[in-house]
Amino acid sequence: MKNKKKITDPALKQILSELEEIVERLGYKTRYEKGNFEGGYCVLKESRFIVVNNRNEVERRITIVTKCIKEIGIDDIFIKPHLREIIEAESAKGVPVDSDDSDDNEESNEAEAVEEKIHGSDS
Protein backbone atom coordinates (compact mmCIF):
# COMPACT_ATOMS: atom_id res chain seq x y z
CA MET A 1 0.00 0.00 0.00
CA LYS A 2 1.36 3.41 -0.94
CA ASN A 3 1.89 6.21 1.54
CA LYS A 4 -0.89 8.73 1.33
CA LYS A 5 0.38 12.18 0.48
CA LYS A 6 -1.58 14.86 2.28
CA ILE A 7 -3.37 17.24 -0.02
CA THR A 8 -3.24 20.85 1.10
CA ASP A 9 -5.95 23.29 0.17
CA PRO A 10 -4.46 25.95 -2.14
CA ALA A 11 -6.49 28.61 -0.28
CA LEU A 12 -4.65 27.72 2.94
CA LYS A 13 -1.29 28.01 1.19
CA GLN A 14 -2.35 31.41 -0.14
CA ILE A 15 -3.34 32.59 3.34
CA LEU A 16 -0.01 31.43 4.74
CA SER A 17 1.82 33.24 1.95
CA GLU A 18 -0.08 36.47 2.68
CA LEU A 19 0.69 36.11 6.39
CA GLU A 20 4.38 35.69 5.55
CA GLU A 21 4.21 39.00 3.66
CA ILE A 22 2.81 40.67 6.80
CA VAL A 23 5.66 39.15 8.83
CA GLU A 24 8.13 40.68 6.38
CA ARG A 25 6.46 44.09 6.61
CA LEU A 26 6.79 43.88 10.40
CA GLY A 27 10.56 43.46 10.00
CA TYR A 28 10.72 39.74 10.73
CA LYS A 29 11.79 36.77 8.63
CA THR A 30 9.82 33.52 8.58
CA ARG A 31 11.87 30.35 8.87
CA TYR A 32 10.69 26.76 8.72
CA GLU A 33 12.99 24.40 10.62
CA LYS A 34 13.00 20.88 12.02
CA GLY A 35 13.11 20.35 15.73
CA ASN A 36 11.31 19.61 18.95
CA PHE A 37 9.24 22.80 19.07
CA GLU A 38 5.99 24.23 17.73
CA GLY A 39 7.10 27.70 16.76
CA GLY A 40 7.32 31.27 17.92
CA TYR A 41 9.15 34.52 17.43
CA CYS A 42 12.54 35.65 18.65
CA VAL A 43 15.24 38.24 18.23
CA LEU A 44 18.74 36.91 17.64
CA LYS A 45 21.38 39.62 17.78
CA GLU A 46 19.86 42.15 15.38
CA SER A 47 17.75 39.71 13.38
CA ARG A 48 14.07 39.08 14.04
CA PHE A 49 12.53 35.72 13.23
CA ILE A 50 9.34 33.77 13.37
CA VAL A 51 10.41 30.13 13.46
CA VAL A 52 7.89 27.43 12.63
CA ASN A 53 8.38 23.68 12.77
CA ASN A 54 8.26 22.55 9.15
CA ARG A 55 6.63 19.28 10.18
CA ASN A 56 3.47 21.15 11.19
CA GLU A 57 0.44 20.98 8.93
CA VAL A 58 -0.43 24.17 7.03
CA GLU A 59 -3.34 24.89 9.39
CA ARG A 60 -1.01 24.74 12.41
CA ARG A 61 1.56 26.92 10.62
CA ILE A 62 -1.17 29.51 10.03
CA THR A 63 -2.11 29.40 13.71
CA ILE A 64 1.48 29.89 14.86
CA VAL A 65 2.21 32.71 12.42
CA THR A 66 -1.05 34.55 13.20
CA LYS A 67 -0.43 34.43 16.93
CA CYS A 68 3.12 35.67 16.50
CA ILE A 69 1.91 38.53 14.29
CA LYS A 70 -0.67 39.51 16.91
CA GLU A 71 1.90 39.39 19.73
CA ILE A 72 4.33 41.51 17.71
CA GLY A 73 1.60 44.06 17.01
CA ILE A 74 -0.56 44.92 14.03
CA ASP A 75 -2.05 48.27 14.98
CA ASP A 76 0.28 50.36 12.83
CA ILE A 77 0.05 48.54 9.51
CA PHE A 78 -2.67 47.86 6.96
CA ILE A 79 -3.80 44.25 6.84
CA LYS A 80 -6.47 42.94 4.50
CA PRO A 81 -9.74 42.55 6.41
CA HIS A 82 -10.02 38.78 5.93
CA LEU A 83 -6.48 38.30 7.26
CA ARG A 84 -7.10 40.62 10.19
CA GLU A 85 -10.19 38.54 11.08
CA ILE A 86 -8.12 35.34 11.06
CA ILE A 87 -5.41 36.96 13.20
CA GLU A 88 -7.95 38.30 15.69
CA ALA A 89 -9.83 34.98 15.87
CA GLU A 90 -6.66 33.03 16.61
CA SER A 91 -5.41 35.47 19.23
CA ALA A 92 -8.81 35.48 20.96
CA LYS A 93 -8.28 31.83 21.87
CA GLY A 94 -5.55 32.86 24.29
CA VAL A 95 -3.29 29.87 23.65
CA PRO A 96 0.32 31.11 23.58
CA VAL A 97 2.97 30.03 21.11
CA ASP A 98 6.59 29.48 22.04
CA SER A 99 8.28 32.85 22.51
CA ASP A 100 10.89 34.42 24.74
CA ASP A 101 8.27 35.37 27.35
CA SER A 102 6.06 32.27 27.20
CA ASP A 103 6.82 28.83 28.55
CA ASP A 104 3.25 27.55 28.70
CA ASN A 105 2.76 24.27 26.81
CA GLU A 106 -1.04 24.19 26.48
CA GLU A 107 -2.54 22.22 23.62
CA SER A 108 -5.73 22.97 21.70
CA ASN A 109 -7.46 22.46 18.37
CA GLU A 110 -6.02 25.48 16.59
CA ALA A 111 -5.88 23.79 13.19
CA GLU A 112 -9.59 22.95 13.27
CA ALA A 113 -10.49 26.49 14.30
CA VAL A 114 -8.38 28.05 11.54
CA GLU A 115 -9.95 25.79 8.96
CA GLU A 116 -13.43 26.58 10.27
CA LYS A 117 -12.66 30.33 10.13
CA ILE A 118 -11.23 30.03 6.63
CA HIS A 119 -13.93 27.83 5.19
CA GLY A 120 -16.55 29.55 7.28
CA SER A 121 -19.62 28.67 9.16
CA ASP A 122 -21.98 31.29 7.84
CA SER A 123 -23.71 31.77 11.17
Structural topology:
Elements (H helix, E strand, L loop, with lengths): L9 H16 L3 E5 L5 E6 L2 E7 L4 H15 L8 H12 L17 H10 L4
Parallel strand pairs: 1-3
Antiparallel strand pairs: 2-3
Helix pairs in contact: 1-2, 2-3, 2-4
Task: Describe the overall structure.
The protein has four helices and three strands; from the N terminus they run αβββααα. With 123 residues, the chain is α+β, with helices and mostly antiparallel strands. 43% of the residues lie in helices and 15% in strands. The chain has a three-stranded mixed β-sheet with strand order 1-3-2, covered by helices on one side. The chain has helices spanning 10-25, 58-72, 81-92, 110-119, and strands at 29-33, 39-44, 47-53. The protein has a domain at 10-94: Zincin-like (2-Layer Sandwich). Residues 99-115 have low confidence and may be disordered.
